[in-house]
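hi! just following up on the protien thing from before. the input was this:
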Amino acid sequence: MTDPLDITIGKHTIGPGHRPFIIAEVSGNHDGSLDKALDIVRMVADSGAQAVKLQTYKPETITIDSDAPDFRLSDGHELWGGRTLWDLYQEAHTPWEWHAPIFELANSLGLACFSSPFDPTAIDLLESLDTPAYKIASSEIVDLPLVRLAASKGKPMIISTGMASISEIDAAVAAARETGNDQIVVLSCTADYPANPEESNLRGIPVLREAFGTHIGLSDHTPGIGAPLAAVALGAVVVEKHVTLAREGGGVDSSFSLEPAELASLARESEVAWQCLGQPRIGATTGEREGLRFRRSLYVVQDVRAGDTVTADNVRSIRPAHGLAPELFDVVEGRTFATDVARGTALTWDLV
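and the predicted 3d structure came back as:
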């Protein structure tokens, strides 16, 4: 099934007629090791997910080295309390020279590989690698010049909406469309790390689809895969989750990231959830046809002679379904049989 809004990223098609597009976000879970980053890519390919995603920035392109309160996370932050932005991004960033080998390996394994750019120089780098798409991170949704620049490259745009108001989402989508690019997926997102499932508000997915006329997905930071499966049931065609080789010592985002078996489960079960959506119809399916034969109906359960009275002893509601409907017993009870009838015969009108 095709849809006029279907989007192609690499060899993968995104839309309601296709299995959910699962994006594995590496973020800083490479833990400063290119070898580990490449191992994550291999793990993603083995999992059945279709895409691996990076974040493309340098500490100096996203913040400045300052210890002032404006540049320090709140002490009460669950994961990174008290750290400066510079310190966090110094640890978490993916060195630019790693991008080429990561892209090369991912492409060789059949994965779509792309990234979130955080400034124009990042877009230049990603264009040099022939990125098949761009992802706008939640915090960058208000950077409309960045959105326009990325969209102007003519690649699919995946836009996260964590923290954003409906007017901010509208402005970002409009900025992308101003360039003539309508290949847009809007991701429902709660930009908290880790996110509380109760704050996911997934019922907003149909609202976003109606408001913007785009495909909708989910960028999820809750533990596990419950939220993504619920999102698929509500119409999400893209799911993004952070991934790690192991949560124990697995990197800066590892506490809310999926381990290999969990990512494989997400890839598998999201496809099952999508298949279960089916069509908006009620009634017996092709697979239920055999079951229809074994509904209950009225059967003669004792050998009877012509003239015998129909009673609860010689006619009962049993399986299969070739006789009169069970509710008709009150109509035939007390009538007489018109002919001899053998035990195991479906009761029909001509027999009474």
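The chain is about 30% helix and 15% strand.
The radius of gyration is 29 Å.
cheers
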